[in-house]
Amino acid sequence: MSYINTIMMGDTPVDVYGIECSAEPDVGLMTDYVEIEDLKIGGVSVYELFASYGLLDKAQEYINDSFGG
Predict the structure, then answer these.
(1) Which end of the chain has fewer beta carbons closer than 10 Å to its terminal beta carbon, N or C?
(2) Tens digit of each residue's pLDDT (9 = 90 or more) over 51-67
(3) Euclidean distance between the first and final Cα of the chain, in Å?
């Protein structure tokens, strides 16, 4: 897992870590990306946070709606 970037949450800088994957143009991923299962913000697993609050289905629905899927 490596450092990806720092984001601001209010006035607090929070480091983001993950495993960066290379772009896969053949499947429509035109830039490098980080799998949600590997993404950690401030040491908290984004996947586990979404799963514990039932947000994975809502996030997938929003993504599908946004991209016409």
Answers:
(1) C
(2) 888 888 888 788 788 77
(3) 31
Tokens coding 15: 């480091």
Share of the chain above pLDDT 90, in %: 1
Q: What distance in Å separates the CA atoms of residue 48 and residue 8, rounded to the nearest whole number?
A: 21
Dig out the tokens for 25 from the structure.
């143009």
C-alpha span between 61 and 55 (Å, rounded): 10
pLDDT of residue 49: 86
Question: DSSP readout, the chain?
Answer: -EEEEEEEETTEEEEEEE-EE--BGGGTB-S-EE-GGG-EETTEEHHHHHHHTT-HHHHHHHHHHHTT-
